[in-house]
Amino acid sequence: MGDGDAIRTSYAEMSQQPVDWDLSDKAVEPLRKQQTTLANSTSISGPGTFMGKATRTITFEPTDMEGWWLDRTDLPGSLPIRVGISNVWTTGQIVSNIVLRSGNPHNYVRMVEHLISLRMGMGVDNLMVKLDSGDPPLFERGSLDLIEALDRCGRVTIDKPVQYVTVKEPVTVGGTYGDFVTLAPPDDLENPQLTVDCAINFNTAIGQQRIIFPVCEELTRMASVARTNTSLTKVIYCATLGRLFADVRNLGYNTKNVSIAGKSKYMNEPRLLHEGKALEAAWHRAVLDLLAAIALIPNGQFVGKIKSYKAGHRLDCELIKQLYLNQVVVPLEEMNGAH
């Protein structure tokens, strides 16, 4: 989907962009055989993302249901929301984010990406997340607080096999800003993994950043501290004209929980430096945003290769939707059989 010529041009641009951190040779564990859920429950609280003056609480609980689920405890009678592409409501207007909704229009959860992205890296297949509102907490340490909460719960193995899926062939969705996302089958069907090649290019201090890595628990933990990045221009907008809009007026962003980039320098200290270059924005894009979209594939754990250039939530979700509209998601064992 998209303009083929524009996508080819963007592919050429990405191939010319240097790789800042190449972890493609990192050894990772083989794919898990059996499903898992949590051994215990735990709760965690913080200021709201969209209502920064309010305290919001989420609770992680084990579940017998397959997949990840979001349950609004403040809406009795509403069914839990399955984390899946069919329940994506919007990817935001002023504030870019993935919003999941099911049934009742009030039964939604905003800014779910920093939470559901952990489905891809933390080895938890089945999870119930209970929330006291549709506005999850926003933490100063990115998603590290959520990972530490999952750690406190422990894991138990379930007598059900993990289902792995991939795509039949490479598929690409291109956007209108020179952006694209490509999914492809794994190169090694004997030892398949999920690998990411992610490049961004901002007209701010963030500039060009590119990382290549396999998805694993160690790198998910490392990248979890990466915060949402925003420009100084948008910060000024939110503090002035943006106050006219409900989505922005009470936004919980501050100088500690977001990375702010001016034209030539950061307004606060960036994280995840490698060889003297801050790669926080690339890690945030790759792990906490892009993998959140991959987590929306509900019928199994995706394995294969992901290539992303200058893309965002809208294009990510469009790609996942197109996978199902075009019926290109297949069980991994079918690919093994074909080879």
TrEMBL record:
GO biological process terms held by the UniProt record: lipid A biosynthetic process
Cross-referenced SUPFAM superfamilies: Ribosomal protein S5 domain 2-like
EC category name: hydrolase
Entry EC no(s): 3.5.1.108
Biological pathway: Glycolipid biosynthesis; lipid IV(A) biosynthesis; lipid IV(A) from (3R)-3-hydroxytetradecanoyl-[acyl-carrier-protein] and UDP-N-acetyl-alpha-D-glucosamine: step 2/6
Function (record text): Catalyzes the hydrolysis of UDP-3-O-myristoyl-N-acetylglucosamine to form UDP-3-O-myristoylglucosamine and acetate, the committed step in lipid A biosynthesis.
MF term (GO), any: UDP-3-O-acyl-N-acetylglucosamine deacetylase activity
Keywords of the record: Hydrolase, Lipid A biosynthesis, Lipid biosynthesis, Lipid metabolism, Metal-binding, Zinc
InterPro entries: Ribosomal_Su5_D2-typ_SF (IPR020568), UDP-acyl_GlcNac_deAcase (IPR004463), UDP-acyl_GlcNac_deAcase_C (IPR011334), UDP-acyl_N-AcGlcN_deAcase_N (IPR015870)
Annotated GO CC locations: membrane
Protein known as: UDP-3-O-acyl-N-acetylglucosamine deacetylase
Cofactor: Zn(2+)
Substrates-to-products reaction catalysed: a UDP-3-O-[(3R)-3-hydroxyacyl]-N-acetyl-alpha-D-glucosamine + H2O = a UDP-3-O-[(3R)-3-hydroxyacyl]-alpha-D-glucosamine + acetate
Domain of life: Bacteria
